[in-house]
Structure prediction request, 898 residues.
Amino acid sequence: MNHRVVKRTLNVSVLLCLVLASSAVLGLFTGSTGQNPWEVLALITGRGDPDSVTASIIWRIRLPRVLLASMIGATLSLGGLVFQTLLRNPIAEPYVLGISGGSAVGAILGILLGLSRFPGVASFAFAGSMLTLLLVVSISSGQSSVRKDSLILAGVMVNAFCSSIIMFMVSLTRDSRLHNILFWLMGDLSITDQKQVLILFGVLLPCFVVLFLFANSMNLLLMGEDMAAGMGVDVRLISLALLGTTSLMVSATVCHSGLLGFVGLVIPHLLRLLFGADHRVLIPACVFGGAAYLVLCDLVARTLPAHGEMPVGVVTAMIGAPLFIFLLAKSRR
Amino acid sequence: MKPSLDVRNVSLAYGKSTVLRDISFSVREGEFFIIIGPNGSGKSSLLKVIAGIARPGTGDVELFGRPLRGRSRKALARAIAVVPQTQPMDVPFCVAEVVLMGRSPYMGLLGMESPEDLRVAENAMSFTGVSELARRKFDRLSTGERQRVLIARAICQQPRIMVLDEPTASLDLAHQVHIMELMERLRSHDGTTIIMVSHDLNLAAMYADRLLLMRSGKIISAGSPGEVLNYETLERAYGCVLLVDGNPVKNVPRITLVPAHALPPKSGG
Amino acid sequence: MAYPFSLIVVFFLGLSAMIPWRCEAGMLPGPGGEALRGPDDPTRIVSLAPSITEILFSLGAGHRLAGATDLCDFPSEATLLPKVGRFPGPDLERIVSLRPDLCIALKNVNPADLLDRLGTFGIPVYVVEPKDLSTTMETILELGRLLDAEASAEKLVGGMSSRVERVKSRVAKTGSRPGVFLQIGVTPIVSVGSHTFIDELITVSGGRNLAQGPVPYPRFSREQVLALQPEVIIITSMTRGLVFEHVRDEWREWESLPAVKNQRIFIVDSDLIDRPTARLAEGLEMLAGLIHPELF
Prediction:
């Protein structure tokens, strides 16, 4: 029984990492144009012509997209896990504190102003989500501690209010920007390049590390705030740190990809069912497992329809909703 | 002997209602100290102040001569362990995982257990008799079993003071005695100070070295069971008729409730 | 809360001031801002809009096309071209895989992000911006210069121009300007405001666009349309395959409308009046015939 948790964490991480790697490779092989798989294989293994069109497509279109999908999948799953623990609510998901509403309003404003996706629309989306987060926290903070129920209520209200603003803006728009807006609202991974991917990685990696350091504290929080405090957890500080870090990373991804539902809700439950509730195992599991999930969903979104592509958010919802119902049924027993 | 706990002039208010008024007492090291009193007397709040979970409005609390204020949460957790009144719900962990949580105050940044941590946890589980339940899910256990698991967890903190809030409430008789016996063994074995809130006066009388009787946030009486448990004091505190005689098992008072119909009829009618 | 809020507003304003504004119509600069030159003799052109495809074919340059969007349907040869996805947002991968030596796009219609990314692949992008009749003719001339088809372009534009002049001169002879309500949306009822192709065509063909105004695609309730008392109702749509007979029948129930009394409710093909191509002249003539049947 030595280093039981370390071994388990490593085993689960390695397993899911392999799943992620295979999904990523599969993602490089598939796309809207049928590239010769042998050529693709040659390029991946280092041989092959780096100047060919296939190389361009693989390295500069598909690879950034796969990387973006994995980072966003990881972030949303991890965000869902943290919020579910922090708010002691099994249907909490990463957008619950108004992040989706705020970033959507910001993004739509950016699109209506004619800004390019990055950095224009992305900055507006980020600013929007930070504003709504501030609003939600200030509405719900009566006492010095972070009160869970009022946070959730405030988040739901702010999101609903933002929805109405969004509907209003959408109803006014009638030109090609409408197309842009709708794709953003449904989750869109198509506009990305290497620079974006690197910047995002630079923001997300520290957040993942910080959250992993809080893994044991999160386990203790599940026993109740008083009990956690009695075992040495500074509940207020840790809650704020978790809230801040998670909101930051979720906002950062939303402004690149739009709203992708069901990933943050379903993946933590699925992984909890498979690997147990210990956060020291679940956090790396969510990172790699969530990444693999979104890479695969994006793959489906890119290859299923005959013309163009489906928004990824549609695929995550179509797969995620039945999966969630199945998990719910399983947990009832 | 240095007092393990020294409470001086502590008052606590939640909003407009005052829960503790000018409480002062001390507990010696290795003492079995039980706090009794009717509901709403402030017993649970007092425990929270002692454990450092609630900060008193006025007054000081000292642990082994050092003030509670300013000590880090982790350092406090190594000195005091709390077993709360209500058991946590929806705990997705198994027994061994719950018990190991008690080692958190000693674990490093990443929170990975060392062989020493595992050894302490195994000892704690065998001490409270839950070793066979190690792999079972916490939520699936009976109330009594869960209580023993939570106590094992508290023991893992290797505290010098163990604080328990009504640990025997809602337990069946066998478990009630078992829990009290565990505490007594902990006290005599390791010299741990036991501070407990109890609603069962007879159990308190049989195990306590000293009692603290509270009502409405104030101390009514403090001392040995024989000193505190007398008819006048108890009636003043609880506001009902009680019969106090000698406990046949141990040389302490025995409290018996008197239902209204058992009272002798008033003379003259 | 006011202080941080005002900071945010200032931040937004500052941000928008930093956005590099798009260049004028013409060749887009490369990713580093450097001026890109298109190929002298492009043979693998990808058109990113149906109107552009049409113009290229009408200039006799259809053979230079290597790809088009799925909405590119005129002339019929265009449907045989390899497809690069939807309009206005085509698929980057498909465009790149066709190895184009030039892309031609519509400014402010095709997404700017996509056009920039094409630049990073070394694919030159030429943007045009036809906004009305005269700029459409300029666009045709521009593309003619670009593709070495100046003669065809001038002939085409010459023909368009004379047809437009003919309509104008005939319309000038009469002072009547019937009120026209042109409906492009069924539910809800949507018409066209000022600064659209259709508005200009209506005006030039001697009608009065009743939905004129700053909103490009304003919505109307049936009541509002009745209050306008249109003398001509024209029904069209940008969506394909919808049957409009029932829409016409619905209007016929409102007998108080002049358009119903005089049986002047018409259904037209939107491509003729909404696409910035040489066929606009045809669309103009058609509208003129509907609005002033006595003159044409």
User: Anything to note?
Assistant: The longest helix of chain A spans residues 53-86. The two ends of chain A are 30 Å apart (CA to CA). Residues 74 and 290 of chain A are 5 Å apart (CA to CA). DSSP finds 14 helices and no strands in chain A.
